[in-house]
Structures
1.
Amino acid sequence: MLEARDITVRFGGVIAVNSVSLTVGDGEVLGLIGPNGSGKSTFINAMTGLVPATGKLTVGDRPVPLGRAGAIAASGVLRTFQTPQVHDDLTCLENVLLGLPDRRLRSIGVAWLRRRALMRAEHGRWAEALDALEFVGLADSAQSPAGVLSYGERRRLELARVYAGKPGTLLLDEPAAGLNHVETTNLVKLLHEWRGRGGPALLVVEHKIDFLEELCHRLVVLELGRVIATGEPAAVWADPKVANAYLGVVAEDPSVQNSLGKVADNA
Ligand SMILES: Nc1ncnc2c1ncn2[C@@H]1O[C@H](COP(=O)(O)OP(=O)(O)OP(=O)(O)O)[C@@H](O)[C@H]1O
Ligand SMILES: [Mg+2]
């Protein structure tokens, strides 16, 4: 379980995330939504130590220091990026191996003395990386440079890297952005399959409503860095504050209520 309390991120005079509290329960899929610039990516950046933040982060029952990316990852919280972060010059396999660091053998001297153990560990890492590529359907590209992949395949490669890292909680920043309908449907299937195998709790930032409706148990809505609504998807879509945030119009306007109703119905 991941619990964030009063998370605040300031950039100069801008408060990008303003005292946000939320909880992602064991096995839960929580959607984090909101208009452009409402602080969703910044919140994920704060949760993974990439920007300075104040507040409290608890993973399981343990407090985890904000601002320390290594400590947060070690607590089992991993993430993907709004724009997939892969290394074009490395092979797909090497990209996944980056998500499986072996920090036990640090010096050449120790590595020489413990070379058998090192080789065993290395074989294990390669097997896990290949398994992750297999899971996302990229096993055939294991030895190809990531630079030749399509956009959708780059997204899957990033997913393979975090799959290999066996996160307890995974933060996905717009995982379906730039994917076509078929790719989006396949991603939903993949995430369901992972969850079926005891995969991580998910915090998903996404604009695609179908995607959210397929996956999320609850939604949290941000506007200008603040939480304005939390709850089950149907209740959140029906909330006039959410209509206001998205459409920037008077929420009581029946046509707005109507269009949001349709969105929810279609999803
Ligand atoms: N590194 C930064 N330095 C200064 N301001 C930033 C920085 N990162 C984000 N911001 C500002 O913080 C606010 C929130 O941005 P953020 O990227 O978190 O929004 P978002 O909800 O992820 O939007 P989108 O849906 O477009 O991805 C915006 O006003 C943005 O300009
Ligand atoms: Mg964003």
2.
Amino acid sequence: MTHVADIAEGYLLRNDTSELAGVNREVVVFEHALADLAALDDAHLARIIERAAKAGPMHYNLSVVEPDDEGGYGHWVQGLLARPGEKVNGWEVLELIRAGRLWLQVEHLHELAPDLYWLMRAAYDEFKRRVAHFTYFNLYTNLLISGPTAKVTPHIDVAEVLLFHIRGHKKFTLWDPAKFPVPDEWRESIILREQLEDVPLKPEWLSQGTEAVLGPGQGVSFPLMWPHAVENLGELNVSLQSEYHHPASIRRYAALYANGLLRRRLGMNPHSTGPGAWGEALRAVAGLAAKKLKVHSPKPRKVALSFVVDARAEGGVRWLPEKERMLVTK
Ligand SMILES: [Fe+2]
């Protein structure tokens, strides 16, 4: 892998600066050099999978989407790469992912794959140098490795997102809240950790969003808290995904947090905190203060790990009996 210090300035993002100007304000598909520089071939992926398995389930999310009874997008079920004490063969797991619907997110890249973390930091720094309004803090990076039929159900991320696609093809569907209004209560419950990020969009909206197909060397940015879904298009997919904040996203996050508390604690029906809405900054100060004072202490979110990867089981997924399921806080 190329050492980050050797990357020429301006090399990581291949678009003209004018084409990057809409980053985090509109849907922007851009071209990047990370697919070449990250050298995420099968051997590299297998090593990272083994490191993640050894580090344990707090360092990764492994999921499949199980179909719903009434149709629709289905629902997430989480599992384990290995049971405690078991050793994992990264190549074997990679083949199982390639064969089916497993979706693996390796977290904490600054620990498990620092080269990838620093490569992403370099791309962020290039955005910052070239796009006047762009800034970032609280950068969180992860590596997504998912199967040809894996998909991510419609959801809202509470931070800004930049995804650098590396291998395979995937389709993003994004729903502009101006056309497909999503109640603030949904965003508040996600921020207050009362529910997972999934959002129940109207079934007729599912085919009406804006679509963006990404191939290797392409990336996507979209406005904060836009609902989106992702479908892999028939190959092993590898992406470097990241989340971050900047002052405006923190204001929006904190304002929603404050409104959520007003609604729940005082039975109030606060005005919308739509971006730029009047009073958002003030509300945000209250939200940040409340968060610091721990006014709201949500129950930790417990997630059951219901399966373990097993080459001998159908689809590589061996379901665990109820009493063997591990409960983790995520
Ligand atoms: Fe997302």
